[in-house]
Amino acid sequence: MKQRGFSRASRGQLVVLALPALVFMVLFRVVPAFGSVIAFQDYNIFRGLLGSEWVGLQNFREMVLYHNFGRVLRNSLIIGFQKLIFTFPFPVILALLLNEVFRPLWKRSVQTLVYLPHFLSWVIVSQIFINILSPQGGLINIVLERGLGMDPISFLTQERFFRPIVVISSIWKESGFDSIVYLAALAAIDQQLYEAAAIDGASRWKQLWRITIPMLIPTMVVLFLIKAGRFLEIGFDQIWTLANPVVWPVADIFDTYVYRKGLLDGAYSLTTAVNLFKTVVSVTLLVSLNQLAKRTLGRSLF
Amino acid sequence: MAVTSKRRIQRNRQSAEAHRLGSGPLWTAAVYVILAMVALTMLLPFVHEIAKSFSHPVEANAGRVLFTPQRPTIENYAYFLQDRYSRLWRSMLITTYLTVFATLWSVLLTGISAYPMSRPANEFPLLKVMQGLLVFSLVFFPPLIPYFLTVRGYGLMDTLWAIILTHSILPFNLVLAINYYRQLPEDILDSCRIDGASDVRILFRIVMPLSAPMLATITVYISVLIWNIYLHPLLFIRSPEIMPLQPVVRSILSETLNAATSRTSASIFDSAQSTKSALVLVSIVPIVAVYPFLQRFFVKGALLGAVKS
User: Fold this and answer.
1) Paired residues of B308 in beta bridges
2) What is the value of pTM for the model shown?
3) B190–A4: do the CB atoms touch at under 8 Å?
């Protein structure tokens, strides 16, 4: 490493410049992390963190025994898993398709369209889904009625449709944006491989399976591991805006449960125990999958 | 490394012709047909919503509006000009103000803090501590209730500061900025130091101007996040006067949903599908208007921050 002369003043300046990040991370990440100890207390808003009674693992015991914990855990695992598995192929397929388009206008138009929903909030995207699925003049129901002669279906008030709608709306909203990374990976493939293959008489189909997809697999593995590490981070906004009381039995995930039971109903300590359980599982998963990506492929998120 | 891959991409562009080798007409047709279907899947919901929003409520509710307005009217939009929906327009102003302010604040702080963290440990003694904190912030989001109690404890309840300060720095953006600063040519910084420039001066005069593309990218990320913010205002904002856009849109939607039962003097526009469509469209107009500018920068950003190699 090059040796440079640094004055004390320069170091001092660097420390001052780092202060915003230091203060932010301590105040809004570390301090609330310590605040999680209320999971081991019977937290009382008037007594505060220091005055509340310590109850050991009572909240965790209560969480497992009552309060729909099993339902919330099951919903989170199922929805998280379904989102992970079913959304994953779409950005890859989309990127592969876009990679085959050589007319810039076509390519740019499709890209503009598929990226757009990423910039809309879940409040809006969910409402678009609610509107097109509505039995009162929703697009899907009109098509079912006119095309297949079916009676209107109230999709959003039936338990069996809720999770598929969550998955499909995720695909619709994020596939475009997620395809960008794959497009970049595709652009980095050496074109001489294709030239050589074409000279040997390989069709595009063969080139796809023998060159493109093998070259894409490392990127796919890394992104899959990152997404798998975040699979419990389903997202409050999406579930909260798509769900309604009728489908809570299949919709309620950790985030919505904690908001409802904790913030709205005031069960602070109990829901913090529930939340802590989710956070610990999530962080463990994320860190270990990140390590796995680092070891096997030399790439990682952090 | 970065240079060679750039060169390679350039060469790839030149040989795009060669890329077509081996693609028969059937292949090309299949690609375009599937992409056209994808495009329609993205587009048709919007066309349907637009058609409904310009249709008479009775037509929309009865399912007679597919992709063309029936009994065209702009009443669905005019409906939201009533006094009781003034909060919609106010929330749009609030969110515009909030987005501009929080974005400037966040980009400035991120751009500043990333600089020392991009320096080697022998120059910046706190490097290890800061990196530890950053990894912690990336993987760990505090449980909701302690987070809520902490922010409330700072006295930020029912102020927009609760949103601005909690988004002072996005850990992901900070990673982007640090990685970008590390790629800058060290020679330039060195020559400035020889000329006696201080670190503060180097940061504001050299490093930040050279990093304009990265700063633009993190601007896009944070501004979209703030514009669309939903849970934070639910947690921290109580007063309707400062309630941001998304929660207001959501509450109007659930209100019009129940309007028919809750009010006696109901009009046909209450709880009509057509007014809901109009509301959806009104609230996406600002995003769609700035979308071309957003699109230019976020593609770069998605690549900058995707994975660390």
Assistant:
1) A300
2) 0.88
3) yes
